[in-house]
Each structure stands twice: as structure tokens, then as C-alpha cells.
Amino acid sequence: MRTRFDVGCVIPMNDEGDIFRPGTVVFDETGIQYVGSPEACPAVAERTVAMPQGILLPGLLNGHNHAAMALMRGMADDSPLFEWLSHHVWPLEARLTPDDIYLGTLLASAEMIRSGTVGFADMYFAMDAVAAAVEKTGMRAWLARGLVGNEDPTGEKLAEAVAFCQAWAGKANGRLQTMLGPHAPYTCPPEYLARVAEAAKSHGLGIHIHLSESRDEMDQMATLYQKTPIQLAHDAGIFESRTLIAHGVYITADDLRWLEGIQGGVISCPVSNAKLGNGIMPYPLLKEAGIPVGLGSDGAASTNNLDMFLEMKMMAWVQKLSGHRPDAFRAMDALWAATRGTAQVLGYDGGVLAPGRPSDFIVLDGGRPHLTPEWDVVANVVYAASGADVRYVVVDGRILLDDGLITTFDEEAVAAEARKRQALLAKR
Amino acid sequence: MRTRFDVGCVIPMNDEGDIFRPGTVVFDETGIQYVGSPEACPAVAERTVAMPQGILLPGLLNGHNHAAMALMRGMADDSPLFEWLSHHVWPLEARLTPDDIYLGTLLASAEMIRSGTVGFADMYFAMDAVAAAVEKTGMRAWLARGLVGNEDPTGEKLAEAVAFCQAWAGKANGRLQTMLGPHAPYTCPPEYLARVAEAAKSHGLGIHIHLSESRDEMDQMATLYQKTPIQLAHDAGIFESRTLIAHGVYITADDLRWLEGIQGGVISCPVSNAKLGNGIMPYPLLKEAGIPVGLGSDGAASTNNLDMFLEMKMMAWVQKLSGHRPDAFRAMDALWAATRGTAQVLGYDGGVLAPGRPSDFIVLDGGRPHLTPEWDVVANVVYAASGADVRYVVVDGRILLDDGLITTFDEEAVAAEARKRQALLAKR
Asked: B90 Cβ partners below 8 Å, 6+ apart?
């Protein structure tokens, strides 16, 4: 079905830096057909949505998530990291069923769709359940089964992960993509990382891995291997396939030589990195080196809210803090990271609106008091808007949020079931 | 009129740390009559609001604002500070009429009410217009005319400010309170600060002042007077009256001796302090010294969004960053700062729900996906909720936001007029 949106403003995020005011977008299931001013638009549409105060932009791409952890939102919050993991998260995860994980992923998806996220990169377990949830919700996802080397002496789990990748890649009309997910160098010894790197190369798969997230990780890798996590991953052959590096807080100037020519890039998770007391990713260093930087939320158990508008704000705020200047990082840098940056890291051709590109976009209600007046629409989107301002979400030509209503599943039933499940999990 | 709220959870923020689940609050214009479990509630009410997923807590108090600057939201955003002020903000402020300021304050109030703020401390000019807006909106406010010493050689403006204070203090059924507002030590020389301090003492007025906000301010005061801004204010006699110190980013351990026994305290503005690249307020130092710390947004021209839920998040995030530990600052510390902390700084008996206290509170819709499930209701309120989750706002016993609708003025007309006025201001 061909659909037309007539809105107050379209920010296509193209290389030309166009902003159309007013603007029109026409799309169907095959992709975007028109982006520009309403007068020049030739296409006849079966449905037209008119929103004179609407701001239309590419849908946000969450480059690092553990979606099902939405079920653990706020659990033992503010605890020291190791206590939190070993006394709370890990024991609970050991009791999660695939059905819990399906439900948790739906819960996270309700939240993501409502706040303007069209796709996410996920690392978790029971990934068949996650993939089934993604099929249901209509979102895009890049899924990786998390691999812990110490728990996989025979390589059985790696083989299962490869089989998962092969089974689901390109499913759901291409909305589903798959990757390998060696968790981190402190849970995967170098030999195991090398086996994963080898499997990725031979099967043509990308890799999703946590690297250089915390001071403790840096210290541990230095002590054990006299390497930074980046060098360790490089030496294991990880970077010979497309790699999504989650966090990268402690990447150093020295590390840049190991990252030279990398496919993929770094996903910054500024809220998680602050909330866990880890630090601030060195954006200027990566930018200078030409390494793509995208944006992610991390799991809701540590981040609490998957709203990518919060992540854009926080990325700008911490980069300005660390640069000691208001112009150290601009609103457009944040919006770029959350759209084209994440797309670049994933090797995805979305994150930009142009004929032939995927029809993934969102529309905000720009008429609300906190988005008024409009001196600078990009500043309003990044610094003043929140996910709650999103009224429409379109993914792969399908409207997932229609004037504020989720169309693909019953979010109230999911939330009610999550409340029941939490009560059971707390007791189990 | 006696009104009763029956909700899923009441967080009264009392010293006992009570949480009532389910909970009931009964109030009228004279104050709160009951806070507790529904069964024990004896009061008969004329109206009952039932919200089984509702989370009821004291209304948030924004301790530092320049409300009318909402008209400049996003203007020349991300520019270096001096360029922004001298080429954009000051020239535009010179053209603002009292009517613009009335409108800007209404615009900011729509945003504040919608996001759960019940009262704010404001420093601006044409304050009669700000006071008139506060009368209209039904909010509480602590108003100070900003005084720039260099522009007041005869003390005429100081005299006008005192007259403003006397004219408006206690008006609007006590919702309006007034203070003196010497802008900052870099705009008010020591002799002028001493005159303001003297006027405050002789008229029994509190003082609202920007202190220790930026590195530049610290350097300038050191060069000119060989003092920190805190010592300078102390020596001018400012702290002999109740003082609201906005920002306090660069307060040092040495400064504590000048703050000993201070009435009032520090209002942290973590978003503004990050967005302008200034830094992080030393919360542990102030907490250790027993100095009250509240929370504020600063003006929307630099902060862009007046949502105090963003400020609570950012306060927690930057304090955890600066403490390098997730437990360096907890969700309850942020909620305390935004309610009782600001109240303490202002000398206000609100910010807590108990019989006889002011009936100022808010109710969130806790059933939304991003607030589900509920392992920790305070973590959900601080880390996961946003202002957009607020459904009811009650101030001084009057419902200002009723199931999502502002009752005291037409917010759409205000937003429409603000858009028109912006177009004119951009041309003037």
C-alpha cells in the first residue's frame, strides 16, 4: 500500500543536509519513493497522513541492547556492579525460560517502538524466542546469541550460535539479521575469541562484542595478557569480520592502530556508562580516526529506559562535559550517531531517507509546548523532545505506531503479563 | 473541595521512608488531610480519582529557572558561551517586551506543569509580568528580579526590586514568594553585592544568585579579587540572609568555611552544567558538610527542556560518573533533591506529603511499558519515568493537570502565540 505523510518538517539526514519545511514522504513495502517538498510530489497514495506540526526523520537505531532484560528493570538498582551481577542478575537469568525471554523482548519492543526506535542490535540467550518476538513486533533486529567461552569448552554453543545465524538471517522480509556474540574478553579467553573469529570469517558473519567498557576490564586484561581489550580482540582475529564494539569507553590513542581499516565501529552507550560509573567514550579520538560511532542503550536492567532520545541527549551532554565546551559536540552529531552512525556500524543502508532506501521513519508531534518555538529543529529533536513525542513509527513500509497506538501486538497485555511474571521471578 | 486519590503507590518522601502500596491521599485547599493506606482513610470526599497503576509523590520543585527564556529554546544552540550570550541572547533580550515575558513564562509553565513541576525559583526581568503569569497558571514561584550591578549605578533598580518583593510576597494565596536576585559576581561588583545584602537583611528577603558556575568565572574572580565567588559573596554579606546558590559547580573544600551555618543552600543544574561544558557539582563535599542541595533546570534557552525528570536522571548519572561507582548516588538521592532538597534551600514546608502540609503533588501512570515491571518504584520514577508520564498535578489543593489536561490556561493558544512571536523576534 502506498502511503503519504505531509508534515511540517522532514529531516532526511542525507549528505546534503536537506531540511524540507513543509515536507512530504511517500513509501510502500518496497521502500521510500519520494522525499521532498509537497508541491513537487507526484505520487498518488492510498492513505495520506497530514500533520502540520509533525517532524519526520529516520527511525532511531539502537546499536546495543539486551532487550529481554526489560523484565529486570530497576532490580537491585544502584548496587555495585559485581554484587548486582552475581547476587541478582545471574541467579535470575539462570531461572529465565524462553517464554520469559519472548515476553521481555516484547515488553522492550513496546517501549522501543513508542520512543521511536525502528531497529536494535541484541545480544542475549534463547535467541529463537527473541527472533520470534521480532517477527511479531515488526521491528528490525540484528541478533547475536551471547557466548561465554568459559561455559563452552567443546564449542557446542558456538556451533549452535552459527546454526541460529543461518536459520534466521534475512527472515521476516529481511528485517532479521544475525551476528556472532562473544560476550567480552573477560568471559571469553583469547583462544575462544579466535575460534569465534574463525567461525565468523568462514560463515561470513558479523560480530557483536563488549570491549573496553570498564576500568576493571582494562586492568584485568593488562594483568592477564599485557594487552588492551582492543589489541586482544584484534590479535584473536575478531576485526577480520564486521565488528560492533559495544561501549569502547577506554579506547586509547594507542588502540587506533589495531582498529585501522575496521569494518563496523563502536556503539556508545552513554547512559549505561554513566549509570554504572564507567566513564565517557573518547568520541573525538574515534571521529578523528574515521571510525564509525553509533548509539545504543544497553539493557534496561542497567539503563532503565530504552528511549534513544535520552541516549542522544546524554551523548551530547557527556561529550560537551568532557570537551569543556558547548560546541564540542552538536545536536546534529547526536542525531547522526543514532541514525546513520549505528547504520554504518551494522552495514545497514537505512538511517537516511531517500528514494530506494528502506522505509523506516518516525514522526514527532512538534506542536507540544516543550518543542515550541522552533529556532532550530534539530536542537528541538535532540535536546527537547523525548520518546513520548513520537506519534508514528514506520518500519519496512508498515506502520507499527499509528497515531500513538501500537498495531502489531497488545502492549497492555504484555505489560500486565510482565507484572505477573516479575512477581513470580521475585519469588522463584 | 475535598478530593481523594486512590492509587497503586504513594511515596510521601517523609523521614520514615514510608511507601504505601496501595495508597490514598485526601486534600483540600487548606492542605493535605490524609496520607496512608486506603483502608485506614476515614475522610469522605466530594471527588475521588482512582488510578490502580498510579504512582503519587510530592510535586517536583525547580530551584533555578529563567522561565521566559523558553521563547529562546534552541536559539543559536551549541555555540560557545560568550558568542551565544553577546551575539544572540542579550540582543534578543533587549527587544523583549513585558508581554513577551508573560507569554514565555506561560509557555514554560505549560511545559513545567505537564512534566510534574509544582513550583519554581525564577530570576529574570519585567517580573510583574512573570508574577501575573504565575497567578494565572496556579503554580508556586519564588521570584527575583535579576540585578546587574554595572547597570545600576544609582541603586534605582535595587529599589525597584525591593518594591517588587514587597508588592508580591504572599500573593496568590501564598503561592508567590519573592527574593532579591543579584545576578552573579561577574556582573555585580563587591560593593553592589554588599548593597544588595544590606537591602535583603533590612527587608527580611532571601537572595537568589549564580555562583561558581564556570571555570572562567573562577579565573576572573581570582584575578580581580584573589577570592573564589563563594568567599566574595560571603565577604559582601550575602550569606547573612537565606541564599539560593545556583550551580555551585566549582565549590571547593576551602569554600566550606564561608558556607558554614548558611541558610538556604545550593541548587544543582546538571543538564545546563553539562550542556554548556561547565562541569559537575561536588555533591559529596556539600552532603558531607550538611549543606542542603536542591535541583533546577536553568532556563530553556540553554537546557532546552524543563522536565525535572531529566534533571534527576542527569544528577544521578553525573554523580555516578564522578564517583566512579553505581552506588555513588542513588535514585532516592535524586528524588530527595528534586523535592525536599529544593524545599530546604527555599525554606518551604512542601516537598513532603503529610497531614497539614501543602497539597502539592503529582501522579504518574505507572502502567506504561517503560515503567514495567516494578522491582523498585523509586528507581522507576527516577531512571525510567519522564515528565510525559505525569497525569495529574495538584498545587495548593487545585488540580492544574487533570488526566493530562491543563485546567488553568489554554496551552495550545500559548504555543501558537509563541510560534508567531518567535517569527517576529527572529526578524526584529
From this structure: none
pLDDT at B428: 67
Mutate to test the interface with B, among A9, A65, A73 (most CBs of B within 10 A): A73
Residues 6 or more apart whose CB falls under 8 angstroms from that of A22 comprise A6, A7, A8, A9, A37, A38, A52
CA distances from A107 to A175, A421, B19, B232, B368 (A): 19, 12, 26, 54, 10
Model ipTM value: 0.98
C-alpha distance from A416 to closest chain B C-alpha (Å): 8
What's the pTM value of the predicted model, to 2 decimals?
0.98
**Any idea which residue has 550542556 for its cell?**
B275
Give the number of domains in chain A. 2
We report the CATH number of the domain holding residue A176 as: 3.20.20.140
Residue A403 domain-assigned (yes or no): no
Helix extents (H) in B86-184: 90-95, 98-114, 127-137, 156-168
> Does one domain contain both B253 and B302?
yes
Which helix (H) or strand (E) segment is A194 a member of?
Answer: helix A190-203
**Do A296 and A357 fall into the same domain?**
no
Is the separation of the CB atoms in B294 and B63 below 8 Å? yes
CATH number, position B385: 2.30.40.10
Q: Rounded distance, CA B146 to CA B181, Å?
A: 5
Beta-carbon separation of A325 and B110 below 8 A: no
Question: Is residue B20 domain-resident?
Answer: yes
Q: Measured between beta carbons, which residues in chain B are less than 8 angstroms from residue A139?
A: none
CB pair distance less than 8 Å for A274 and B387: no
The beta-strand segments (E) located in B250-342 are 264-268, 293-295
Residue of B nearest to A422 (CA): B373
Give the whole-angstrom CA distance, residue B310 versus residue A307. 12
Nearest Cα of chain A lies from the Cα of B362 at a distance, in angstroms, of 18
For residue B356, give its domain range: 3-59+352-396
**pLDDT, tens digit, for every residue of B117-163?**
999 999 999 999 999 999 999 999 999 999 999 899 999 999 999 99
**Which amino acid is it at A8?**
G
On whether the CB atoms of residues B61 and B294 are closer than 8 A, the answer is yes
Same domain, A66 and A55: no
Whole-angstrom CA distances from B264 to A406, B101, B293, B349, B388 are: 47, 28, 9, 13, 30
- Closest alpha carbon within chain B to A82: B326
DSSP character at residue A20: B
* Residue A418 within a domain: no
